[in-house]
């Protein structure tokens, strides 16, 4: 009896425990569901953030687990390139959405997003270095040669982008890009460290060496060598110094001409004396030897040599551009029935006979070409006229009008562009030609042509400007509202954090 009573008590206790458990379970199930509601949600249109009260953010930034996200008007998380309040942000790949900052590589291009994630454009100073990030809707870091405003800048190879200054060698050519806060490629004459250098025209900028720039010579280091003279200056001083008189002593009514007789870029000097009104001339020719000394030229194979280096005859010396030959004076005055045009070519220090064009009414054939070997080739009167029309006169200047040494006085003289390191300006080249000789005779080279050369090894971005690449970007992703590729609105002012041009 007593045992049965205990069993009944135990059953009652178990029932009470069960009731309490049910009540507790029921009570817990009745706690508001908002405690578990907050979190990321997804459907076919994208991701959104659901708050505890089942609401979700729209048209706003929200920090979630330490990262910033932007939600559009529909409440969905923005990704890729997104423009918010007129500024561009990069919000990662399709399954990311977190706002990116500092350097980011997006589809092969680098962008500087700063600490607040805003895409920067124009000139930007990053970790002490300047970068050109294109126009207002561009932002991509530029490399290689870039023209910004009026000037060219060298921004390194594909993984670099930092503006270079000072002396730089690019694709085997030397350039000077100004001081630390300058970077603009210098052109024309520049004084650097007390020396004058020449850097070509506005679209060139490469240092010129071992060549003539107008009347000025630059050596192997590109420095102007003040004691070096042009060939024309040497011939000019031969006249102004009176050295020619040892050959022309006793002759009057002198004139001179300077011309390149054999198209070798070395000019020759001709001096003539008109001895009578009937057109009889005595002529001397001078050239430069390998040591740049003025030496006389001997007219060979001619009966008209008055002295060792003086030839005489009727008519002035003329020139054939086509045959690179000098037409010397003849023993008689040509007429319609009888005439002779002797062609001589300059070889070293000699004028050697090449051929004659002859018309002789009493000869057979009456019109012919006569070469240095004595061979005759019949030609027509029309062909003779072609020979005559091709001849040109030298530009003669009388000695009485001599006022100064020969120089290219018709060349323009633009202002010398000043480099930051310019020092003593007291002495400088006077004539600064628009077009130069030597390496520049084929015209200014375009910098963009050098960009097509293969670069063996691209330089890397400096360690202090470590670039973070978004590893989650997929090749097939489409960027939302991606900035356009236009980068051509050149912004030439560099403000506070930017470079003063």
From TrEMBL:
Please name the Gene3D superfamilies in this protein's record: Cholin Binding
Per UniProt, what is one Pfam family of this protein?
Choline_bind_1
Q: Entry's InterPro entries? A: Cell_wall/Cho-bd_repeat
Composition bias type Acidic residues, residue spans? 436-449, 464-484
Q: Which ranges are annotated Polar residues under compositional bias?
A: 410-428
Bias-annotated ranges (Basic and acidic residues): 450-463
Q: Where is the signal peptide?
A: 1-37
- State if Coiled coil is listed as a keyword: no
Alphabetically sorted, this entry's keywords are: Repeat, Signal
The segments labelled Disordered in the record are 410-501
Entry keyword annotation includes Repeat: yes
Spell out the protein name for this chain. N-acetylmuramoyl-L-alanine amidase family protein
């Amino acid at each position: 009896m007593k045992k049965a009573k205990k069993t009944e008590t135990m059953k009652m206790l178990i029932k009470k425990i069960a009731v309490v458990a049910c009540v507790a379970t029921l009570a817990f199930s009745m706690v508001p569901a908002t405690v578990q509601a907050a979190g990321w949600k997804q459907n076919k249109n994208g991701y959104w953030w659901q708050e505890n009260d089942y609401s979700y953010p729209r048209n706003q930034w929200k920090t979630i687990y330490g990262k910033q996200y932007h939600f559009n008007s529909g409440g969905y998380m923005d990704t890729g390139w997104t423009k918010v309040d007129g500024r561009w942000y990069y919000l990662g790949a399709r399954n990311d959405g977190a706002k990116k900052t500092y350097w980011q590589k997006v589809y092969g291009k680098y962008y500087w997003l700063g600490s607040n994630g805003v895409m920067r454009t124009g000139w930007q100073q990053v970790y002490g270095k300047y970068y050109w990030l294109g126009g207002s809707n561009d932002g991509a870091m530029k490399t290689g040669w870039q023209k910004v405003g009026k000037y060219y800048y060298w921004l390194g190879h594909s993984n670099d982008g930092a503006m270079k200054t000072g002396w730089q060698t690019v694709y085997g050519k030397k350039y000077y890009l100004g001081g630390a806060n300058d970077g603009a490629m210098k052109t024309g004459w520049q004084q650097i460290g007390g020396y004058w250098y020449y850097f070509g025209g506005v679209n060139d900028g490469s240092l010129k060496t071992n060549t003539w720039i107008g009347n000025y010579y630059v050596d192997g280091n590109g420095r102007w060598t003040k004691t070096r003279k042009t060939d024309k200056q040497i011939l000019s001083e031969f006249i102004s110094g009176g050295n020619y008189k040892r050959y022309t002593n006793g002759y009057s009514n002198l004139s001179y001409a300077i011309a390149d007789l054999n198209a070798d870029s070395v000019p020759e000097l001709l001096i003539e004396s008109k001895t009578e009104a009937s057109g009889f001339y005595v002529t001397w020719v001078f050239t430069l030897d390998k040591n740049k000394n003025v030496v006389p030229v001997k007219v060979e194979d001619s009966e008209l040599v008055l002295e060792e280096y003086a030839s005489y005859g009727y008519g002035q010396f003329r020139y054939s551009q086509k045959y690179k030959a000098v037409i010397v004076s003849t023993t008689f005055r040509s007429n319609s029935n009888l005439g002779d045009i002797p062609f001589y070519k300059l070889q070293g220090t000699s004028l050697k006979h090449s051929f004659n064009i002859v018309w002789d009414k009493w000869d057979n054939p009456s019109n012919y070409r006569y070469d240095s070997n004595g061979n005759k080739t019949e030609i027509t009167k029309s062909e003779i006229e072609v020979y005559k029309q091709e001849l040109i006169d030298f530009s003669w200047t009388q000695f009485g009008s001599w006022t100064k040494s020969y120089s290219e006085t018709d060349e323009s003289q633009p202002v010398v562009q000043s480099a930051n390191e310019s020092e003593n300006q007291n002495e400088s080249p006077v004539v600064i030609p628009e077009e130069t000789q030597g390496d520049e005779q084929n015209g200014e080279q375009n910098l963009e042509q050098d960009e097509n050369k293969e670069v063996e090894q691209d330089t890397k971005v400096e360690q202090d400007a470590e670039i973070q690449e978004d590893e989650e970007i997929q090749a097939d992703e489409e960027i939302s509202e991606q900035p356009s590729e236009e980068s051509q609105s050149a912004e030439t002012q560099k403000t506070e954090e930017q470079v003063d041009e």
